[in-house]
C-alpha cells in the first residue's frame, strides 16, 4: 500500500491547525501510520530540503522549518501521494484553490502550513529520513470491510 510523508510546518502548529489537517486526511479515508511532534536541527532541515539548496529562498525556508515544532506524519492509502498533494493545494497560496489546505489557510508562499511528498520515490526517502526507527503495522488488525 502506498505511503506518503506529510509535515505540518511551524505556522500550522502555532495556528492550531493540527486537528483540522489530521481530520481531513482521516475523513478522506487514509490511515495515519506514524506521527511525532518535533523541532528539528538546522542540518536536518537542510537535508530534508537538499534538492532546493540552490534556490534563493533556501536560507529563509530552513529558518522557517527550524523556528518551532512540526508534526511529522506518515499516511497510507490508495494513491495517497498524489491525492495528498491535491488536498494540500498548490505551493503558492495565491494559486491554491479554496477547499485545499493551503487554499483555505495560507496567503504567503513562505508560510504555507504543510508539506507533502511530491512522488512515491521522494516519499520513501523522506519517510526513511524522518522515521529511521521504522513504522509499526496496525491495519492488519482491522476488519477488512473498514477502508
Ligand atoms: P513542500 O516541499 O513544502 O511540500 O512544497 P512544494 O513541493 O509545494 O514546493 P517546493 O517547490 O518543493 O518548495 C518547498 C517550500 O519552499 C517554500 N518556498 N518559498 N519564497 C519562495 O518563493 C518560495 N518558494 C517555495 C515553500 O514553503 C514551499 O512549500
TrEMBL record:
Q: Which GO terms describe its molecular function?
A: ATP binding; nucleoside diphosphate kinase activity
Membrane-spanning regions, if any? Answer: none
Which BP terms does GO give this entry? CTP biosynthetic process; GTP biosynthetic process; UTP biosynthetic process
Q: Name its co-factor(s).
A: Mg(2+)
Residue ranges of domain Nucleoside diphosphate kinase-like in the record: 1-137
Per its record, the protein catalyses: a ribonucleoside 5'-diphosphate + ATP = a ribonucleoside 5'-triphosphate + ADP; a 2'-deoxyribonucleoside 5'-diphosphate + ATP = a 2'-deoxyribonucleoside 5'-triphosphate + ADP
Entry's EC annotation: 2.7.4.6
The residues that the entry says bind ATP are 9, 57, 85, 91, 102, 112
Q: Where is the signal peptide?
A: none
Please list the residues that make up the active site: 115
Q: Which HAMAP family match?
A: NDP_kinase
Provide the family line. Belongs to the NDK family.
Stated name of the protein: Nucleoside diphosphate kinase
Amino acid at each position: 500500500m502506498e505511503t506518503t510523508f506529510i509535515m505540518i510546518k511551524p505556522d500550522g502548529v502555532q495556528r492550531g491547525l493540527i486537528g483540522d489537517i489530521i481530520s481531513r486526511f482521516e475523513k478522506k479515508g487514509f490511515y495515519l501510520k506514524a506521527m511525532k511532534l518535533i523541532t528539528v536541527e538546522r542540518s536536518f532541515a537542510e537535508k530534508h530540503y537538499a534538492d532546493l539548496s540552490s534556490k534563493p529562498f533556501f536560507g529563509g525556508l530552513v529558518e522557517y522549518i527550524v523556528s518551532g515544532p512540526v508534526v511529522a506524519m506518515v499516511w497510507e492509502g490508495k494513491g495517497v501521494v498524489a491525492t495528498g498533494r491535491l488536498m494540500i493545494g498548490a505551493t503558492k497560496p495565491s494559486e491554491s484553490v479554496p477547499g485545499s489546505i493551503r487554499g483555505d489557510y495560507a496567503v504567503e508562499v513562505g508560510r504555507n502550513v504543510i508539506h507533502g511528498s511530491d512522488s512515491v520515490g521522494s516519499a520513501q526517502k523522506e519517510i526513511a529520513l524522518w522515521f529511521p526507527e521504522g513504522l509499526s503495522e496496525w491495519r492488519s488488525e482491522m476488519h477488512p470491510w473498514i477502508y
